[in-house]
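In the current project phase, work has continued on tokenised descriptions of protein folds. One protein thus recorded appears below exactly as we store it.

——
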Amino acid sequence: MPRRWPPTLIDSTLEVLKPIDGAVAAKLEVIMRTLRKRKDSAQFLEPVDCVQMKLPNYPQIIKQPMDLGTVERNLKRDTALDFAEKQYQFVEEFAHDVRLVWKNAFLFNQPNHDVFKAAKKLALVFEEQLAALHEELDKEGPPCPKFARCQILLSDMCGNCLSEWFRRDDWKQFGEEYRTMIKSGQPMDLFAVQAWLDEQPKDAGEQVVREFYDLTRLVWSNAIDFNQANSWIGTIAHVLSENFERRFKLIDKAPRPPSVQPIEERAGWPTFEQKQQLFQHCTGLSLREASLLAQEVRKRCPAAISSIDKDRERESVDLDKLDSETFTYMDALRLQKVARQSP
């Protein structure tokens, strides 16, 4: 059975993961070929041979060995498997294993070692390539409000295996020394950013998006201030920072839902507030859930369905054109999901 990614975080991020189909798999293979062609990738193409390289302590330090050759072989093997049996069902699972290669190199080698330096270069190249893929996939995906995209980005950063040292308030073990050594004077970690984000209204505006950006940046800048930029933790903070900056810029480029204006309400029909609630729910659906819902609407109320891209068979549902019965059906599904998610 395929290994799930990451075991402690996948439940909360499942609906924002990007599935790997044939077209996406081909793009991931291009990324792998780009990495392989670089001279500094040579030491990462096959598993570390502890015996031949005389590294008896490697297994004690590195608990999850990974190499680029293994990732490539997994990708190729997946092409012949059903989705449920794939090693990499989602882009994030693929990215997790590639990042694990760099993480292991950072953990085992000193910052002045050639392997460490090569891992840093490749990590930055990989994140640049992956961000370009995310941009492409975001354009093809359903519209999504800026606030929701901030949550998606934060979930992805938390799921990044390199963020292991940035999720919790580990800085507290250093006491006041930590506060005095960071320029901001404001300790921050990814879970603290998440707690702050949870308190914000879901229809939050630009100010909240900007504050999210500033708070998350503190996580990386504080780590660099306290540990120094050329330390192993400073290097990882730099890689994560570059990744975050690229992904945050994509938030403005990604498609967003059109502004919803109320129309004259009709007796016995859903109110504007009810339609707005349903609309917000639909923007949070996974692609599979949205597709199944659209199929059901097509059966019940075809007048509410319109094609937005015939070549890619993409459709939209106009909530204002739904008949009362179909709207009630869709809203009941929304309420059921809300009930399941309630503690």
About this structure: Residues 1-15, 308-312 have pLDDT under 50 and may be disordered. Strands lie at 305-309, 314-317. The longest strand covers residues 305-309. DSSP finds 14 helices and two strands in the chain.
